[in-house]
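Re: the 229-residue chain
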Amino acid sequence: MRCYYDFHIHSCLSPCGDMDMTPHSIAGMSFINGLNAIAVADHNTARNVRAVSEAAQEFGICTVPAIEAESAENIHLLCLFPNIESAEDMGALLESHLPPIKNRVDIFGEQCIMNARDEKTGEIELLLINATDLTIEEIKKETENRGGICIAAHIDRDKNGIVSILGAVPESLNFTTLETADKIAEGKMDKRYKYITNSDAHYLTDISEKENFLEIEEISVENIINLLK
């Protein structure tokens, strides 16, 4: 069966995310757009993952716990996890490896923790959009130790993409899946990898519509992660 997805959405917890990117609004827009599975991947934290998962249940949408981690090399990595607890554990690790720089709301925007009813329950003071001091290898290993998969994010972008920074995707990193911001022609794909295309949405109108899909026997977090592995 086809699973229409968007595995790279930012909530209002990311300082660059619009304040309308609340858990229930994200779930509702994803439903309107015909998506079967989504992942909210905020910068270096998973503190809104649980709320989004609860909100998405109302719409029958599968939610993959996720984080967009930034390595010491300034490379973005999309990390998907088998359950909320492992994502939250990884998020706590990443937060502890961020530089001690406080968020400037007037410059970067709010970093709001929400519940499934779109009520604000707190804020993160540490600026989340900095690079951690963990290397790509360390983030990938920590993700995999928690049963997840680490994916090189938006490799076709100049900013924070692994190709633009390192010149290529090193074979030694053993990635199985790469993410693109835009669809690439099949003839240009490296057959060693699987490819997914996500929105990297920061606004509700950016969330993918019913376009990108995985062929999967049954839609579940476990099946999605195993397929991408």
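Residues 84-96 form the longest helix (13 residues).
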